Structures are given as structure tokens and as C-alpha cells.
Amino acid sequence: MSTPSSILFTLTILILLCSLHSCVCDNRLIQETCKNCSKSDPNIRYKFCITSFLSDRRSHCAKNLHELGLISIKLTRRNVTDTSAHINELLKKKKSLDPFVKACLNDCLEVYSDAISTLREAIRDYKAKRYADSNVKLSSIVDASTTCEDGFKQKNYVISPLTKRNNDTFQLSAIALSIINMLIHMDKLKGTF
Ligand SMILES: *[C@@H]1O[C@H](CO)[C@@H](O)[C@H](O)[C@H]1NC(C)=O
Ligand SMILES: *[C@@H]1O[C@H](CO)[C@@H](O)[C@H](O)[C@H]1NC(C)=O
Ligand SMILES: *[C@@H]1O[C@H](CO)[C@@H](O)[C@H](O)[C@H]1NC(C)=O
Question: How many helices (H) and strands (E) does the chain have?
Fold first, then answer.
């Protein structure tokens, strides 16, 4: 069945699928932004930044830095929400938790639960372009991840079960913060002309 019309049909379908999967959009904005983020903050690893954005289909076609910034905050929120649920599971499952570890996990749970509502406000501020307010809230998310991780370090026989998650949240919120600071900088430049 390889009549010209069926070939044309197949081609049309392919092009349609391709545009649906946004393979027609390029990732230059992501690359450039991640380069700038990792340059401005040595805690942000370029590869982590790229992988995080590419994991979210919406970012492939992000038209500008503002859109990409919102995606980075939403990625942070997804991470924080998942970690909060994970801590709940850890506390439920292990009845025989070391009392110190249990206390640390409870502290982390409190910090991460607060972070979820803080992120909701950060998104509202961000959408209204109140970047300075959003900056303050994102900074507290960076702090939340280090507060949680540092809790476990108070006793050297304990290994934090949340190191990777804290590190992920740390880097994601640092990326969002870095983008917000670029936007603040761009607003300032606009104001001087
Ligand atoms: C990245 O930084 C360069 C040099 O400071 C700047 O020209 C460019 O606009 C920035 N790109 C983004 C996406 O912020
Ligand atoms: C958190 O974000 C990182 C980076 O995007 C990702 O690799 C990881 O799977 C996420 N973790 C959760 C629990 O969502
Ligand atoms: C996060 O993990 C990366 C790679 O595993 C490491 O290079 C980096 O130092 C860690 N960052 C923090 C704040 O622990």
C-alpha cells in the first residue's frame, strides 16, 4: 500500500507527532540559562540543570526566561512535595527508628511541609512579577534543604537517608533563585533606559 497518497499521509502524521513532541523546538534557551546559572552559583551543576529541565516537556518550548523560571519553581515544588511524602513513609514504616534519627526526620518533615506552602506563595509572587518577594521565599527553600541535612550531621554515627533528596532540592531551588535574580537584573536594566 505505498501509493503516493499513503506516503503523504504517513509524512503528515510524522510531522504532526514531531510537533506534538516539541522536537521542533530547540533547547538553546535551556543551555544558555543553565550555563549562566552554574556560572553565577558554583553549587549548581550544569548537567543537573540541563537534565532537570529536559525532564519536563513544557520547558522544551519555553519562549523566555520568565517561563523557564516558573518551570524551575514547579520542579522544586514537585521535589519538595515528594520528599515530604517520603519522610512520612519513613516515619511510618520503621517502628524501630533510632530516636535521634526519628527526631531529625520529624524536623525535616516540619521544614518540608512549610516549604510546600511557601512555594505556593513563591509561585503567586513570581507570576505577578514580584520577583523580590519570590526571591525571599525561594531562599527559604534553599535553607530548608540544608537545615534538614545538617540535622543528621550533629551525630557522626548517623547517615542521612535524605542526602540525595536534599541535594536535589538544594540545586533546584538554587536554579530558580538564580533565574529570579537574572530577571531582577533585567528589570533594573530596563528601568535605566
Ligand atoms: C546569559 O549571560 C549572557 C552574558 O551575561 C547574557 O548576554 C545572556 O542574555 C544570558 N542569557 C540568559 C538566557 O539569561
Ligand atoms: C527531584 O529533582 C531531580 C532533578 O530534576 C530529579 O532527578 C529527581 O528525580 C527528583 N526527585 C523527586 C523525588 O521527584
Ligand atoms: C550535590 O551533589 C553533587 C554531585 O553528587 C556534589 O557535587 C555537590 O557538592 C552536592 N552539593 C551539596 C550542597 O551537597
Answer: 8, 0
